[in-house]
Design brief:
The complex is a heterotetramer, with 2 copies of chain A (about 150 residues) and 2 copies of chain B (about 80 residues).
Chain A: E1 2-6, H1 12-20, E2 28-35, E3 39-40, E4 43-52, H2 56-71, E5 76-82, E6 84-86, E7 91-99, H3 102-119, E8 122-128, E9 131-134, H4 139-146
Parallel strand pairs in A: 1-5
Antiparallel strand pairs in A: 2-7, 3-4, 4-6, 4-8, 5-7, 8-9
Helix pairs in contact in A: 2-3, 3-4
Chain B: E1 2-5, H1 7-13, E2 17-19, H2 26-34, H3 38-43, E3 51-54, E4 57-58, E5 70-74
Parallel strand pairs in B: 1-5
Antiparallel strand pairs in B: 1-2, 3-4, 3-5
The chains are: A alpha+beta (about 150), B alpha+beta (about 80).
């Protein structure tokens, strides 16, 4: 597995090439990219600051990926999460999974995102037209994680 | 033990990290912090949705603690 | 929607840029890429020829995407399917979905693949170590499509 | 009507396309084709898993046909 927590942007094409790795046992690739939106709960968002818990964040992501690898037949998994100051339309997170068959890659990728959202220590602080605010955890994310 | 605060709690307490000795469990540490009153009593009220990690793993409120542990207290996570 | 049936390879980075379209209402992108594998049912595959039904194939893909757009809140969807001669590790199909929230993009992308596999008129003929053979439809693909 | 064959059926019949007049339904067209015997009778036996499209849409076996229609007969699809 490849886990990175970093400020710089990632290059999706590079990440896909690294995951596929010219391996002709790969039949399926599923990728997720999350982006900063320009509005949240009806309020305009000018930017956000992503805080994390160095050390625990990486361990938490590795544990989530290890669980996905146990549950599904995957070949390689990458997770990249950005931290620091980001702006609308910036990519925040990349999750990529390659597998022989598509059902494994879809399930593992969505599982990782649902767990990341509820388990991995990241916090978003938005700069909005009403000032700064810490984003509140969403009940729908807890529900999404409980499905698995 | 090293006690770390993140995100809204770090800002509200005006504190990222402190050293505390003595508490033998998360419950005892939280009691000690609440006994300071003010924002500590308010934010760490049992009805508030904060989370606790011990040695960088999510921990239950009755987890045992040693002075060599790293404890972190933070709001529910909101990454992704 | 953007539907293409073509022989040339596609560039995933270009397709993602076109889907995201610098639109800061986009919060989630899910992409699927299917690749030619070098083995199938235990037999080595040297290459494959993808046949389709010109006209019906495009209509069928457009109908599948239209149904996904009805069922989920998506912003843009692209489907590219290659035809003609392909070799192990070649990409065959790209499905990309952008939406405000991730659950919609995951569901729409997987639904499109499951329906494409059972509804869109494409047929694979493999060149294997035992000669040429038409790939048989898989019961697991029918099951996957029936879930939705 | 124009009748198209794809993939394994096209190869087995040695035929990609033909013109046929008269059948008023898919059932009648299939009866006519089966009456040729040989690979037609074998591949289009009701127990075989072929599919039929009329005017480029998947069609049921009892669908009505007109001479202006485009009918296609093919194996279950295997794209993706």
């Amino acid at each position: 597995m490849d886990i990175r927590v970093q400020h710089p942007a990632f290059d999706v094409a590079d990440e896909i090439a690294r995951l596929h790795a010219a391996d002709s046992g790969v039949g399926a690739l599923v990728t997720f990219v999350g982006y900063v939106r320009d509005a949240h709960a009806g309020v305009g968002v000018q930017g956000m600051e992503l805080e994390h818990y160095p050390g625990m964040t990486e361990k938490s992501l590795a544990a989530i990926v290890a669980e996905a690898e146990q549950r599904w037949h995957t070949l390689r998994i990458s997770v990249i999460h950005r931290v620091g100051k980001l702006f609308p339309a910036d990519p925040i997170v990349f999750v990529g999974v390659v597998s022989a068959h598509r059902a494994d890659a879809f399930a593992a990728c969505e599982f990782i995102m649902d767990y990341l959202k509820t388990q991995a220590p990241f916090w978003k602080k938005e700069t909005t037209s009403n000032g700064e605010r810490w984003v509140e955890a969403r009940a729908s994310d807890d529900e999404a994680a409980r499905r698995w | 033990m090293k006690v770390l605060y993140f995100a809204r709690l770090r800002e509200t307490f005006g504190l990222a990290e402190e050293e505390i000795s003595g508490p033998a469990s998360v419950t005892e540490l939280l009691e000690l912090l609440r006994s300071r009153g003010g924002v500590f009593a308010k934010e760490l009220d049992a009805a508030r949705p904060f989370r606790v990690a011990v040695n960088q793993e999510m921990a239950a409120m009755d987890s045992a603690l040693q002075d060599s542990d790293e404890v972190a207290i933070f709001p529910p996570v909101t990454g992704g």
